[in-house]
Design goal:
Keywords: Membrane, Transmembrane, Transmembrane helix
Number of helices: 12
Number of strands: 2
Strand order of the largest sheet: 1-2
Family: Belongs to the drug/metabolite transporter (DMT) superfamily. Plant drug/metabolite exporter (P-DME) (TC 2.A.7.4) family.
Shape: globular
Largest sheet: 2 strands, antiparallel
GO molecular function: transmembrane transporter activity
InterPro entries: EamA_dom (IPR000620), EmrE-like (IPR037185), WAT1-related (IPR030184)
Structural class: mainly alpha
Order of helices and strands: HHHHHHEHHHHHEH
Protein name: WAT1-related protein
Length: about 375
């Protein structure tokens, strides 16, 4: 029983690490496909449409007995969740990259933990008492994780492990994570507009995670929620693409990296990642999920060194260490808070059991 409860307790941690690894792979494939001309509007529509075709039958099979009835109010909430979490977030992210660069996009995603933490405090999902040492630890851990991710993204430093460099026709800075090696063909840089779109994307992701936590309390069937999340997202993005994507040939998929990217995004991204994220939000809350966002950059740097033979730099190591310290601080604080809550719940029960026994003992005497 102890081993089982321990596995259940640490399962969300393992799931979120896997999610970040899958997201690194998704970023790699999507940037490779879009650098060859695939429209991101088409990509989002096809990926979410295919994911909804997979998720709807699964939800009817898995959750048919425990699924609450679907009401018009719930469907409206699913629609708004898709509007924020897919239509706004994904399209703003790609537009921001086109106006600026993938490096800036990576740096701006580190705003997600700060946005999520702020929203959770505003809506009273998280307790923030600046006089409390645990609240201070959680706040400092969040800031450390963001700072570490910024170091990995923007600072290179001297090399630690030198590897053979593969000749390439493209100029690529090894200080960037490996998924930046397939750079998008961007429009002339407009960093102000690009930063604005990327900030909106990060804020949309934070709002989406916070809203999911509230919706799952009312409607606890997460597979059904994710099914409608992808379905409404596909419809909304398809409507948007009618105005944004005027080339009909863009909808013709080529049996190469484009098709592989869409299949991977639908199966591993939308089905796997969205379902895992919603489950972790239900189990641990939106702040827990957002804390893993900076970890993605550290994972990308490590995988690049191991599997792609890229040079490891001091900046990557320093940033990864700072991320881990900040991440550990927040998770340790959350673990202590959960332990105290369980103690408060179990404490009165044990005392209520002991009281009648003492009274009986005194009566007998």
């Amino acid at each position: 029983m102890g081993i089982k409860s321990c596995l259940v307790k640490f399962l969300p941690f393992a799931v979120m690490v896997v999610v970040q690894c899958l997201d690194v792979g998704l970023t790699t494939l999507s940037k490779a496909a879009m650098s060859r001309g695939m429209s991101h509007y088409v990509f989002v529509v096809y990926a979410n449409a295919l994911a909804s075709l997979i998720l709807f039958p699964s939800s009817f099979i898995i959750e048919r007995k425990r699924r609450p009835p679907l009401t018009f109010s719930i469907l409206c909430k699913f629609f708004l969740l898709s509007l924020v979490g897919i239509t706004m977030m994904q399209n703003c992210a790609f537009t921001g990259v086109n106006y600026s660069s993938p490096t800036l996009a990576s740096a701006m995603t580190n705003l997600v933990p700060a946005f999520t933490f702020s929203l959770a405090v505003i809506f009273r999902m998280e307790k923030l008492d600046l006089k409390s040492s645990r609240s201070q630890m959680k706040l400092m851990g969040t800031l450390l994780s963001i700072s570490g991710a910024m170091v990995v993204t923007l600072y290179k430093g001297p090399p630690i492990l030198k590897t053979l460099q593969v000749p390439s026709t493209e100029k690529f800075s090894a200080s960037k994570p490996f998924f930046f090696s397939t750079m998008l063909k961007t429009t002339p840089s407009n960093w102000v507009i690009g930063s604005l779109f990327l900030a909106i994307s990060s804020l949309s992701y934070a709002i989406s995670n916070t809203a999911q936590a509230a919706i799952l309390k009312e409607y606890p069937s997460q597979i059904t929620m994710v099914s409608f999340f992808c379905f409404f997202g596909a419809i909304q993005c398809a409507t948007l693409s009618l105005f944004a994507e005027r080339d009909p040939n863009a909808w013709i998929l080529k049996p190469d990296i484009e098709l592989i990217c869409i299949l991977y995004s639908a199966i591993c991204g939308c089905v796997g990642m969205f379902t895992a994220i919603s489950w972790c939000i239900k189990m641990k809350g939106p702040v827990f999920v957002s804390m893993f966002t900076p970890l993605e950059i550290a994972i990308a740097s490590i995988l690049a060194t191991i599997f792609l033979g890229e040079t490891l730099y001091v900046g990557s190591v320093i940033g990864a260490v700072v991320i881990v310290i900040g991440f550990y601080g927040v998770i340790w604080t959350q673990f202590k808070e959960e332990k105290d809550e369980n103690h408060e719940v179990n404490g009165p029960q044990s005392s209520s059991v002991k009281t009648p026994l003492l009274e009986t003992h005194r009566t007998d005497v």
